[in-house]
Every structure is written in C-alpha cells, then in structure tokens.
C-alpha cells in the first residue's frame, strides 16, 4: 500500500466509473453557463469589452483545465466504506477530506439523485449527524448500491440507542 | 391552522388529543400596555403642534409623523396579536396558536426544550409582565427561538420556567400556585455565584468603532428633535466658536473628537444599562443544575442554560482587545442560539481574560481547567502557509489595482503601489495567526485555538463529538500538514485544530475520540485504544 498522507487507510469501495462522466458533465455545464453569459455580455455591451475579454479568456482556460483534470482526480480519490461502527468516506481533489461518523451519532440517511445522476443511474449518499457541519456526502455511487446502503444504515442506526447529539 | 411559514427545528408533529388542558390567553395587562403605547406614541406630535405651534407638514414633522404612525399601528397590531394568541402546556407539549391572516400552530415536545428565558422591557417591568422564550432545536447553529409568549405575569413566567425546565406538574389552571413560585426561587445557600458585574469592565466596552456609529445616530436624532420644536441646533453650534478662524483641519479634528466622546459615553451608558446587576450563578433545579445569568437596568434579561446540555466553553480574544487583556466568554451547549443579537451562549460581558479563565474553570468543574493547559504549538511550516496566503493576497490586490489603472484613465498611474502597502499588514496577521495555533487533549476535553482577527480558544468535551473530518489541500500535503475538525451538535457545530503535523493528525483525533478511528488506521496500533469506547449517550432514541 502506498504511503498515505495521513495515518488512515483508504476506505474499501471506489465510486462507480460512470461518476467520471457525471463530473465531466457537471463541469462542462457549469462553466458553459458562465462562459455563455460572459460571451453574451461581451457581444452586447461594447464598452465593457476591454475588461470582459481577459476575464472570458481566464474563465475558458480555467474551465477547460478543471474539466480535464478534476473528474479523473476525483475518481482516484473518492472512496467509501460502511462498517458496523462507523461510516467512512474520502472525497475531494485539490482539497481532500476524510470523514468518519460513528453509527451511534447518525440522524438521517438519504440518497439524492439530481437530473444528471438519474441519467447516469447514479446517486449521492448523504449521512447527517446532529452537527450542522457534519454531513458525509458520497457522490457517484450506483443508484441501487446507494439505496441498499441507505436501507442497511437505517436498520443499523435504529438498533443503536441514543439521541445522537 | 396548519400553515407554518418556517420549518423550525422544533418538530411539528401532530399533537395527540390533550383536550382536557384548556387554552390560555396571554395576560390581560398586555391590552393596557398596548393601549398606553398607542396613546403615548401620539404625544410628541401633539406636544409639537399644541405647545410649539408646529405646522403639520411633511417637511417639518416627517420623522415625528412616521414615528407616531409606527407607534399607533404597532400598538393596534399588538392588540390583535393578543386577541388571537392562545397557549397551553400539556404533559407532552407546549403549544401556541397565533396569527390573524396566517394561522400558526406551533408545538414543541417538552423533552426537546433546551432553555426557558424570561426578559422584560421597561413597559413589562412597570406592569409586572415578562416575556417567556422557550428554546428548542437540534441544529443549534440555525438558532431560532422556537416559541415566545409575549407577555405573561411574573409569577406565571416563573412557574412556566419551573415546569418546563425541571419537569414540574403540567399547568392545569390559570391560577398561580404560590407554592410553585417559592420552589422556583432557589435557596441562597445552594446558589454558586461565579461572577458579578465589576465597574472596571466598562473600560473594555467603551472603545469600539461602534462609538462613532452610535454617536452619529444620537446626534442626528437630537438634531431632528430640536428642529421639530422650532430650535436651531445648527445655528447654536455655529455660534459656539469662530470656526472660520480655527480653520477646516482643526474643525474636522474637533468634530471627530466630539463625536468620539459622545459615542464613548453612549457606549459606557449602554454597557451599564445592559449589564446592570449582572450575576452569573449555578443554580440547582430538579433536573440537575442550570447556569443562570441575570442582567439589565430597564430591560432585564434572565437566561437559564441547562447544565446537562453543557459541552464546553469558548474564550474569544479579538485582536486589539487582546492586548488590553480582554475576552468574551461563551458556553458551548446544544440548543443555544449562537447567531442571535443577544447571544444566550455568552455567559460574561466583555471583561478581563483572567476572570474569563477563572469562570471557565468553575463552569466546567474540572480539577485543572482545560483552557489553562499549555497548548502544543503547531509546526513551523504552518507559518509558511500563512505567509504564502499573505503574499498571495497582497499580490492579487496589487495586480487588480495595476490592471484597473490600465483600464481607467482617471486613476493615477502609481496607485498600485498602495497594494504593496498591504504587505506589512498581511504579513503581521500571518504571524499573529500562526502564533494563535495550538491544541491539546486533556481530561476528556479537546482544546483548540486559532484565529488572526479574533483568537478563539475552545474546550469541547470528547463525548460531544459526533464525527471527525481531516482536511488536506495540495499545499498542506506538501508541507506535511493537515486540519483536524471534530463536528458536534453544540455551539458552532465544528471545532478545528488547523495545520497540525500530518503524521500526528490521526493520533490527535484518536485521543480526542477514543476508538472511533482504530479500524481505519493505516499503521496497526495496539488495541488499547479500543478499551475506551465513546461515553454512552444519555437520553432516549430519536423516534
């Protein structure tokens, strides 16, 4: 096993390979809208061209770079694992996050499916605790797997007493 | 009936039939207060017209007319609110129905109640009324007061608090029970007083940027009021001195100084009226003890914080005030709002840090206060990261200024040099921020300290931790640093040890929350850590 940046092993499961497609689409759409608006402004507002031009170039280069790098990088990083005692997930790319929440402190387990995720048959698993900052989100899971994990977690959570605060 | 405009943290489950408990109105004295308010708000306009012969025109009377209208409508609206409001306390719920156009029915399960506060404005004090605020909620950072009863009589308020906080008998009648009231008043020998107001604290609260804002408001108000009654304040000021001879520069200096003095005096008066007879004490109740603060001259405020929900203490030292040895002290507690203007989490007025530390130790009741422990400094490389950010911020500002000068002809060509002037400030802040960093684990508390503008030291109980997050950016990875964040239901929701040695990050979290990370560690550790499982969680499972 390669040297880990911090003293935690990676979680057991990778996310689906289709998630790469999801991130590419999200990035393309997001930057597409931004670049589209800027282009429209550039064409319509003549006097503003001198400063809109450089911004447009920066956004285009930035967007292309992110779209090329981010999805593969995320796929390499994103992992998740559920044990009898805890939920453990690693997400992020430039900034990486390792999140662990004990089962006894879990309040809700949701699966979220946006339009893009539905098209790719993916889902985001979201596990929340009593903390307003503590939600664990695992995007890019297979929809069926996510639903199964959510159902299992709900069962385990019910067995564990406590008011989760 | 069912319309509830905001999904509050308090759960709004269907209420079981508790028909035998009658609904009650707010106190009838509210009607008299509202009527008096309506009449009184018409007085200034009346006086101006009758005694000073002021013309009723928008130009001269504008503000006073607006004030009158607001007062009259406010009074009438409040009357309507009284007519439409009912509340009751059943065995399981506190319920309130209110609203004319949007009917609102709010119920809070009694076991979710985290705090019951009473407060009184001057009009309430004069009429023996109190406003009761019942606080509940799982996401403490959302910070909404769940239910307010404005207003009931003093004895009713005390009885409600006794019942709701300490699980007394449910209220069955509107008749006050004198016994319950005497029980509510704690015997003096059971009361542990931690702090009282000291006059010298005013010094810490007098000097602030707000002084100028406050003075501006005061002076503007006075100016309008005087003008309304046909006086000429501007002419009076002009006649005070020969401003032409003094010169513009000195006039400005004198004006700023005067405004500053007015503001400082105003802040001092404000501090005393707000914190008059401030007392912080631990008072016994049926369900354990509560931490109680009482304060206020015209508007008294009493806040009770259930000790069962206490999870830690935080001391904040804002940059300039830190050098005066000043600090704000707040408790980290579930269900207390952090973001409100009068934060109930704050247990001391702004005062000396020595008092803050002593009180923190007494509140936490540990042998040696975790906040007094020596903190481990973070690696020197954390300073490099901060200096990097400081230089980057300076460069970005300078670059933007330079770019703007090429775009806008009117800007002088060397404005971008001003951006470089930021460098000493940002670099100084970087050093300050680095020196703030520290952490330790002691006596079941995780203590973290950070902050450039405001240095915050927080001590959080291990058992309050509901999750652990490690964060590492590419730069942090290169510098072998990582940020350890523990999440919790109390206070701000999360507390961080920023930029610790990456090799020690997991160790730190493992000591703060024993057992949780054992299964996920990369290097095998002896199973000793497993012996100490997270403390058993109290209370019942959430349905």
Automatic annotation (TrEMBL), chain A:
<keyword id="KW-0812">Transmembrane</keyword>
<keyword id="KW-0472">Membrane</keyword>
<dbReference type="Pfam" id="PF03703">
    <property type="entry name" value="bPH_2"/>
</dbReference>
<dbReference type="InterPro" id="IPR005182">
    <property type="entry name" value="YdbS-like_PH"/>
</dbReference>
<keyword id="KW-1133">Transmembrane helix</keyword>
<protein>
    <recommendedName>
        <fullName>YdbS-like PH domain-containing protein</fullName>
    </recommendedName>
</protein>
<feature type="transmembrane region" description="Helical">
    <location>
        <begin position="20"/>
        <end position="45"/>
    </location>
</feature>
<feature type="domain" description="YdbS-like PH">
    <location>
        <begin position="76"/>
        <end position="151"/>
    </location>
</feature>
<feature type="transmembrane region" description="Helical">
    <location>
        <begin position="51"/>
        <end position="73"/>
    </location>
</feature>
From TrEMBL, chain B:
<feature type="transmembrane region" description="Helical">
    <location>
        <begin position="414"/>
        <end position="434"/>
    </location>
</feature>
<feature type="region of interest" description="Disordered">
    <location>
        <begin position="168"/>
        <end position="187"/>
    </location>
</feature>
<keyword id="KW-0472">Membrane</keyword>
<dbReference type="InterPro" id="IPR014529">
    <property type="entry name" value="UCP026631"/>
</dbReference>
<feature type="domain" description="YdbS-like PH">
    <location>
        <begin position="434"/>
        <end position="506"/>
    </location>
</feature>
<keyword id="KW-0812">Transmembrane</keyword>
<dbReference type="InterPro" id="IPR005182">
    <property type="entry name" value="YdbS-like_PH"/>
</dbReference>
<feature type="domain" description="YdbS-like PH">
    <location>
        <begin position="82"/>
        <end position="163"/>
    </location>
</feature>
<keyword id="KW-1133">Transmembrane helix</keyword>
<dbReference type="Pfam" id="PF03703">
    <property type="entry name" value="bPH_2"/>
</dbReference>
<feature type="transmembrane region" description="Helical">
    <location>
        <begin position="202"/>
        <end position="226"/>
    </location>
</feature>
<feature type="transmembrane region" description="Helical">
    <location>
        <begin position="246"/>
        <end position="272"/>
    </location>
</feature>
<protein>
    <recommendedName>
        <fullName>YdbS-like PH domain-containing protein</fullName>
    </recommendedName>
</protein>
<feature type="transmembrane region" description="Helical">
    <location>
        <begin position="387"/>
        <end position="408"/>
    </location>
</feature>
<feature type="transmembrane region" description="Helical">
    <location>
        <begin position="64"/>
        <end position="83"/>
    </location>
</feature>
């Amino acid at each position: 096993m390669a040297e880990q940046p911090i003293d935690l092993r990676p979680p057991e499961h990778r996310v689906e390979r289709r998630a790469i497609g999801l991130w590419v689409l999200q990035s393309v759409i997001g930057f597409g809208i931004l670049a589209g608006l800027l282009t429209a402004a550039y064409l319509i507002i003549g006097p503003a061209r001198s400063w809109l031009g450089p911004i447009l170039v920066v956004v285009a280069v930035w967007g292309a770079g992110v779209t090329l790098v981010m999805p593969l990088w995320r796929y390499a990083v994103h992992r998740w694992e559920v044990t009898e005692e805890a939920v453990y997930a690693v997400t992020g790319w430039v900034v990486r996050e390792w999140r662990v929440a004990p089962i006894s402190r879990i309040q809700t387990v949701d699966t979220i499916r946006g339009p893009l995720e539905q098209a790719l048959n993916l889902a985001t698993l979201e596990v929340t605790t009593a903390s307003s900052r503590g939600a664990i989100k695992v995007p890019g899971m297979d929809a069926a797997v996510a639903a199964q994990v959510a159902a299992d977690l709900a069962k385990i959570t019910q067995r564990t007493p406590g008011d989760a605060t | 009936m069912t319309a509830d405009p905001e999904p509050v943290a308090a759960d709004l489950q269907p209420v079981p039939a508790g028909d035998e408990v009658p609904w009650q109105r707010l106190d009838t004295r509210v009607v008299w207060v509202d009527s008096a308010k309506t009449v009184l708000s018409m007085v200034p306009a009346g006086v101006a017209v009758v005694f000073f012969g002021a013309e009723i025109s928008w130009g001269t009377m504008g503000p006073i007319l607006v004030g009158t209208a607001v007062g009259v409508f406010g009074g009438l609206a409040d009357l309507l609110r009284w007519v439409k409001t009912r509340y009751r306390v059943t065995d399981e719920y506190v319920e309130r129905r209110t609203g004319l156009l949007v009917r609102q029915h709010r119920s809070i399960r009694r076991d979710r109640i985290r705090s019951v506060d009473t407060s009184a404005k001057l009009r309430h004090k004069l009429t023996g009324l109190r406003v009761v605020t019942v606080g509940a909620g799982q996401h403490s950072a959302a910070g909404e007061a769940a239910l307010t009863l404005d207003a009931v009589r003093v004895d009713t308020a005390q009885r409600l608090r006794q019942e709701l906080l300490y699980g007394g008998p449910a209220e069955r009648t509107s008749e006050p029970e004198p016994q319950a009231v005497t029980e509510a008043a704690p015997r003096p020998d059971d009361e542990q007083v931690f702090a009282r107001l000291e006059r010298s604290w005013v010094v810490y609260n007098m000097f602030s940027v707000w002084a100028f804002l406050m003075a501006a408001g005061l002076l503007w108000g006075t100016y309008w009021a005087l003008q309304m009654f046909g006086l000429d304040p501007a002419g009076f000021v002009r006649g005070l001195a020969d401003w032409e001879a003094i010169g513009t520069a000195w006039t400005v200096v004198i004006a700023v100084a005067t405004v500053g003095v007015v503001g400082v005096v105003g802040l001092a008066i404000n501090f005393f009226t707000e914190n008059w007879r401030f007392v912080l004490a631990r008072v016994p109740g049926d369900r354990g003890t509560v931490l109680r603060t009482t304060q206020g001259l015209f508007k008294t405020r009493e806040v009770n914080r259930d000790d069962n929900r206490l999870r830690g203490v935080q001391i904040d030292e804002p940059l300039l005030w830190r050098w005066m040895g000043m600090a704000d002290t707040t408790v980290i507690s579930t269900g207390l709002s952090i973001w409100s203007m009068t934060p109930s989490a704050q247990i001391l007025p702004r005062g000396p840090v020595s008092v803050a530390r002593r009180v923190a130790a007494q509140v936490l009741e540990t042998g040696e206060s975790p906040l007094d422990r020596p903190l481990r400094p973070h690696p020197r490389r954390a300073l490099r990261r901060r200096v990097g950010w400081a230089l980057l911020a300076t460069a970005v500002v300078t670059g933007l200024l330079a770019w703007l000068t090429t775009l806008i002809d009117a800007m002088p060509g060397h404005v971008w040099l001003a951006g470089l002037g930021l460098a000493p400030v940002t670099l100084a802040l970087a050093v300050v921020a680095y020196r703030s960093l520290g952490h330790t684990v002691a006596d079941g508390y995780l203590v973290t300290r950070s902050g450039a503008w405001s240095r915050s030291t927080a001590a959080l109980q291990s058992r309050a931790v509901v999750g652990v997050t490690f964060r590492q950016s590419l730069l942090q990875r290169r510098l072998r640093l990582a940020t350890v964040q523990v999440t919790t239901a109390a206070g701000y929701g999360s507390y961080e040890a920023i930029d610790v040695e990456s090799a020690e990050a997991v160790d730190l979290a493992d000591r703060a929350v024993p057992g949780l990370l054992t299964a996920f560690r990369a290097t095998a550790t002896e199973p000793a850590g497993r012996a100490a499982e997270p403390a058993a969680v109290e209370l019942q499972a959430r349905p």
